[in-house]
Amino acid sequence: YDPASGINGDVKDIALQNGKIVEASKLTTGAKVIDARGKTVMPGGIDIHTHVAGPKINVGRLYRPEDKLHDPAMVSSTKVLRAGGGFSVPSTFVTGYRYATLGYTFVNEAAMPPLLARHTHEEIHDTPILDQSAFTLLGNNWLVMEYIKRGQKENLDAFVAWMLKATKGFVVKLVNPGGTEAWGWGKNCADIDDPVPYFDVTPKDIIQGLAESNERLGLPHSIHLHGNNLGHPGNYTTTLKTLALTEGIRTNKKSGRNQNMHFTHAQFNSYGGTAWKDFESKGAEIADYVNSHDHLTIDVGFVTLDETTTMTADGPFEFVLHSTNHLKWANLDVELETGSGVVPFIYDPKGHVFGIQWAVGLDLALSVKDMMKCFMTTDHPNAGPFTRYPYIMSWLMSKKARDAKLATLHKWVPERSKVAGISRELSLYEIAMMTRAGPAKALGVSKTKGHLGAGADADIAIYSYNPKATDGTQNPDAIVKAFSNAAYTIKGGEIVVKDGTVVSLGQPKSLIWTDADGFNNKEVINDVVDKFLKYYSVTLNNYPVQDAYYDHLHQNVIKAGPLAGGN
Questions:
Q1: Minimal CA–CA distance to 232: which of 282, 187, 288, 164?
Q2: Which residues contact 421 (CB under 8 A, 6 or more apart)?
Q3: In the chain, what are the helix, strand and coil shares in percent, each to the nearest 5?
Q4: Closest C-alpha among 9, 18, 130 to residue 454
Q5: Distance, CA of 328 to CA of 345 (rounded, Å)
Q6: Does 95 have pLDDT greater than 70?
Q7: What is the pTM of this model?
Q8: Average per-residue pLDDT in the chain?
């Protein structure tokens, strides 16, 4: 199943050589053969939005020792594996093992505070097997807001380019733009027109300003946006206004994509009602907008109804969660740049709110017509751990599975959502769109990832699931079983997982980051130096992540502009 190549369940051979997929004629005699007859073969999975490395992840690990109590599969030390565990916030090593066991080979840390980029890269360094990138948080940065306020577009572009290079970041990330900075003043920006204290800009200004800068620079991925007013009843109206902000912004065609916005974990922003008492799903309404507009992609952020650990750079929202469940709360302000919060959370299946949240994600995904625009995530670990992806697949592919789950939830769930009346069942081809081809295209890495054609990285997942012999719509447990433990995961041409067991850590992994080039703006250099002298607690010399740090790893640097889309 290779949507990028238009291959939908065809039986064919795949040849691998020197870490790449090649034409079969290039193989020499005596090549190793893997018998995958009767199995499902896809490119390695790609998680476009997850939280697996960095300071808030580490806070979650440190102050949630009880998380290990919910871990059904603690990892014991072997000649290959290091011991570890954690259900919602597993250790770095276990994170790599478990993604690989699911058939995933490339994941993206979705929120890297620039000041703490070194820590983030240390954890990426320790995560085995997976190629990784990190998204640089810029939506609440002081200099970004100052340049936008003054209308200094060239300065903004130069600063964004420098920040990506200094942090070895891949993507421009916005989280509650303006709102996280407002939280430092005890406030928030619930609407896109709310002013940010002191800076006199609005979330609308920040979103449009960074989206335009992203396109002028020709970055491989669009802006990656966590919207304002997340998690509140009635927020779908804010979402619709937010999605419309970049309709008129011209996409840089050199980037190799058509979208100028990626709206992340959209489930959390697709809520109707005026309070939790009359809370209802508006997933279908957001899907209608996605279906009728081509300037954006989304990922879902499916709620899996587990006990988990919420963590986000949306500091004010974490305080709301803490005020709701009264569980322990960690809060951090990252000087001049961003902030974050961490709160444990229980999505109790008996509660009507949590059941409706589960339904919102399915309303949204099953109502989007083109799955190349809608991707599978849980905003790990916020809506649930990534290890639940096989269950999400079963809900998407089987109405029987959805109905069985629905029968265990609060009676208001079918009344306040559309999921009970949706008969659509996604195919494996559409699942491959959501988890492989779509994310690769949106991220700008589709030349080498997300497909099985010649020239692609030899990253392949093989599952013991034969759709011709097993009807997953009627036997959804077979979907969960097969996709929870890959028969083979091949990373860079080497078998790293066999029969659900990690057997090798593979070849050196890759760090992927964007070089936007051209940072020679003297005014911006002076501004950066001034901010570090006046406000930062570290010196400018100790801020950037040096190339030497990754000398022993592959660095896949994506050049912005004419070469965007290639590693």
A1: 282
A2: none
A3: 40, 20, 45
A4: 18
A5: 10
A6: yes
A7: 0.96
A8: 93
